[in-house]
Amino acid sequence: MPAKVKTRVLFRSRYLNTYLVRYPEGHKVVPHLDMIAEGRLYKLNCLLIKPRSGGEFACEKNIFNLFGRLILFRPDLYQHQVSRIERGTRWLLSFALTTP
After folding, report:
1. Can you say whether the dihedral through the CA atoms of 68, 74, 80, 86 is positive or negative?
2. What sign for the dihedral angle of Cα 55, 34, 92, 88?
3. Which CATH number is 6-99's, of 1.10.1760.20, 1.20.120.1200, 2.60.120.330, 3.20.19.10?
4. Beta bridge partners of 62
5. d(Cα 54, Cα 83) in Å, to the nearest integer?
6. Which element (helix H / strand E) includes 98?
7. Which among 27, 42, 44, 49 has a CA at the least distance from the CA of 94?
8. Residues 6 or more apart from 24 whose CB is under 8 A from it?
9. Three-state secondary structure along 35-80?
10. Tens of pLDDT along the chain (100 residues)?
């Protein structure tokens, strides 16, 4: 059985949240939307460590994507996912900004 995803909250406020996330080998993120009660949600994901195999991020539409390492997108509007991590781990620094 694969290890669990470990999420550490680095900063939390009404509009901005920052997380450090470790995705273990064997994990995948199925296609989904991030639901919010009101406003707009923006996420800036910084891929700190790529797995040796798998773990590719895919989104219907990005605002920008710099070499698959720095990605800004609207998770409340566009479906996104991460393919199964075949080898290694995936470390992500994620900034979530909610605007009214």
Report:
1. positive
2. negative
3. 2.60.120.330
4. 73
5. 6
6. strand 90-99
7. 44
8. 2, 3, 4, 5, 85, 89
9. CCCCCEEEEEEEEEECCCEECCEEECCEEEEECCCEEEECCCCCCE
10. 567 999 999 999 999 999 999 999 999 999 999 999 999 999 999 999 999 999 999 999 999 999 999 999 999 999 999 999 999 999 999 999 999 9
pTM of the model: 0.92
Rg of the chain over CA atoms, in angstroms? 13
pLDDT on residue 46: 98
29 is written with which tokens?
């993120």
